[in-house]
Amino acid sequence: MISKLSNDTFLRALRRQPTDYTPIWLMRQAGRYLPEYQATRADAGSFLDLAQNPDFATEVTLQPLERFPLDAAILFSDILTIPDAMGLGLSFEAGEGPRFAHPVRTEADVARLAVPSIETSLCYVTDAVSQIRRALVDSAGNQRVPLIGFSGSPWTLACYMVEGGGSADFRTIKSMLYGRPDLLHRILDINAQAVSAYLNAQIEAGAQAVMIFDSWGGALADGAFQSFSLSYIKKVIQGLKRKHEGEQIPVIAFTKGGGLWLDELADSGADAIGVDWTVNLGKAREQVGGRVALQGNLDPNALFAPPEAVRAQARAALDAYGNHPGHVFNLGHGINQFTPIDSVAALVDEVHRYSRGMRR
């Protein structure tokens, strides 16, 4: 599956190499804010049918690249594929988000957990990765941009598994954390094994970088974060295949609300750390030094401002990081489904335009 990359700016930035401009991609860039996504989802019939069909997943992954000159594609999937493959009964209710029919809460529930077979239970994801890689190759035989694979972190997956869905206060899993930490550590250990195997399968199928989404790490207290999230992120990274087909595979770790632990995340083994909008990029760069690249970090709600205000916010973030290697521009979290498309176009254009000027 080796093909020359027409645009490798994203990968070079993750390796902290000089680039002609700051690359940009957006978390949830293939999603509900695009009318073409809505049309494809309607054709699929449901979100799960969309995510579990490699043809639909490929179509949706490519849609934002047809609109915007983004510097990376990211696999269209969901972070809950692993617990679904464990037999927890995933469903999506309109207006309510994901639900598990069989949450993991008792000793018996935990005892039944096992690392799922990627080859049998999650082959639709690896098939999609391979298909997307092929679809990214142009008529000249060159790949347009790199492809990112991803997974939820062990802790974030556990939150959904124990709560049975989304949660405002994480009361159920935190009760387990403080009352039966042994059970939670067992869940997290299984999850870490599964995430490593899952990401390795994506790498073997063609992912050229992988990202660990620790969406709920910021819900933990200091001390608990290190024990119940960071330590398992490190286990995942230690288990990853970091080289494939002669190429290094960069790893991005993103803990939403993780600015307090930036130093520790930088020592996790990841090549890049994603930061949310509460972090000052300049101070973060000085703090991590040359250890890792940084990804981020515009507030997604800034995209509801007029395009000129969006451009100003983009320039402010780029100025905060400064003219240094190792920055991938992104939002501080996923793009909102109601985001105006014109604002996204203005953002991508301004990041490229202004950062080229900074390099000169």
UniProtKB/TrEMBL annotation:
GO cellular component assignments: cytosol
SUPFAM superfamilies: UROD/MetE-like (SSF51726)
Subcellular location: Cytoplasm
Pathway it works in: Porphyrin-containing compound metabolism; protoporphyrin-IX biosynthesis; coproporphyrinogen-III from 5-aminolevulinate: step 4/4
Stretches of the chain forming a coiled coil according to its record: none
Source organism, top-level taxon: Bacteria
GO molecular function: uroporphyrinogen decarboxylase activity
InterPro entries attached to this UniProt entry: UROD/MetE-like_sf, Uroporphyrinogen_deCO2ase_HemE, Uroporphyrinogen_deCOase
Enzyme Commission numbers on file: 4.1.1.37
Residues making up the signal peptide according to the UniProt record: none
Quaternary structure and interacting proteins, as annotated: Homodimer.
Role this protein plays: Catalyzes the decarboxylation of four acetate groups of uroporphyrinogen-III to yield coproporphyrinogen-III.
Family statement drawn from the similarity comment of this UniProt entry: Belongs to the uroporphyrinogen decarboxylase family.
Alphabetized PANTHER family for the sequence: METHYLTETRAHYDROFOLATE:HOMOCYSTEINE METHYLTRANSFERASE RELATED, UROPORPHYRINOGEN DECARBOXYLASE
NCBIfam families: hemE
Name used for this protein in its record: Uroporphyrinogen decarboxylase
Annotated gene: hemE
